[in-house]
């Protein structure tokens, strides 16, 4: 594996996902807890469902695997010859990645909730919660996570640099283009109606501040012990399948 590929793998492990439609580390709250939430907490909970977490992690692990395969001919040949290689590679990283996401998402959720309390009133926050809780929006976010290949963030030339807002936006636009045609006319209409509320419009105006929260978390230094654990997990799979053996 090239040094660039290893650096890219370490970078993707450090990723969290933007508070706008991300995956949460926690399970969905019981109905009694959800009823006790205020509109701000409901908004963040709607952005951070367990299904979104699964879709997001699956998408990033797939993106990482495809990127590494594209950079190494031997790995590409092995992936084609051994159908179990890719799933084993991704399974080895999943628990490590999930732990990092859990920590980062807790930080993101706290910061986002504080921002919403500062900038939106309760009614406006309720509009945003309804928008993100809509089945169409939930499905759209999950599909976008699943289709995001993080081409810009994982590009070899960016392996040693901080993640930028431009890279994130470029990757999301590509992912959104892959899934946007799956929405029916009725689903598009419902999302348009929900997004026209004053609360959602005010929320959209906060994207610069939300991006700043996200970037600060995404560029947190990766714990060397976690990076070592990730690399060890990958090498264990490589040894099992005789890569470079």
Plain-language structure description:
- This protein is mainly alpha-helical.
- The longest helix has 35 residues, at 85-119.
- The protein has one domain.
- The protein has helices spanning 3-14, 31-36, 39-47, 50-71, 73-81, 85-119, 122-133, 135-147, 165-179, 185-195, 198-204, 207-218, 224-240.
- Helix content is 73%, strand content 0%.
- Mean pLDDT is 78; it is low at 1-28.
- It starts with a helix and ends in a 5-residue tail after the last helix.
- The chain contains 13 helices and no strands.
- It is globular, with a radius of gyration of 19 Å.
- Overall strand count: 0
Q: Estimate the helix proportion, in percent.
A: over 70%
Radius of gyration based on Cα positions: 19 Å
**Percentage of β-strand residues:** under 5%
Amino- and carboxy-terminal Cα gap: 12 Å
Contiguous helical run count: 13
Element order: H for helix, E for strand: HHHHHHHHHHHHH
Name the overall outline: globular
Query: Which structural class should the secondary elements be placed in?
Result: mainly alpha
Largest sheet: none
- Identify low-pLDDT runs: 1-28
Round the mean pLDDT to the nearest integer and report it. 78
Q: What's the structural domain tally?
A: 1
């Amino acid at each position: 594996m090239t040094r660039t590929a290893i650096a890219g793998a370490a970078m993707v492990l450090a990723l969290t996902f933007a508070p706008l439609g991300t995956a949460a580390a926690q399970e969905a709250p019981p109905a009694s807890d959800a009823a006790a939430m205020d509109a701000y907490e409901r908004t963040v909970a709607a952005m951070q469902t367990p299904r979104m977490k699964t879709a997001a992690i699956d998408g990033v692990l797939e993106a990482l695997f495809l990127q590494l395969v594209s950079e190494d001919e031997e790995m590409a040949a092995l992936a084609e010859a051994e159908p179990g290689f890719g799933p084993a590679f991704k399974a080895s990283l999943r628990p490590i990645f999930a732990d990092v996401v859990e920590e980062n998402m807790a930080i993101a959720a706290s910061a986002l909730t504080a921002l919403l309390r500062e900038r939106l009133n309760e009614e406006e926050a309720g509009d945003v919660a309804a928008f993100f809780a809509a089945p169409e929006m939930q499905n759209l976010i999950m599909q976008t996570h699943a289709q995001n290949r993080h081409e810009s963030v994982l590009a070899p030339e960016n392996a040693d640099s901080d993640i930028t807002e431009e890279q994130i936006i470029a990757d999301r636009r590509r992912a959104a283009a892959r899934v946007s045609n799956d929405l029916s006319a009725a689903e598009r209409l419902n999302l348009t109606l929900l997004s026209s509320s004053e609360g959602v419009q005010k929320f959209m105006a906060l994207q610069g501040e939300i991006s700043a929260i996200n970037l600060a978390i995404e560029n947190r230094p990766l714990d060397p012990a976690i990076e070592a654990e990730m690399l060890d997990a990958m090498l264990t799979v490589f040894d099992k399948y005789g890569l470079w053996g």
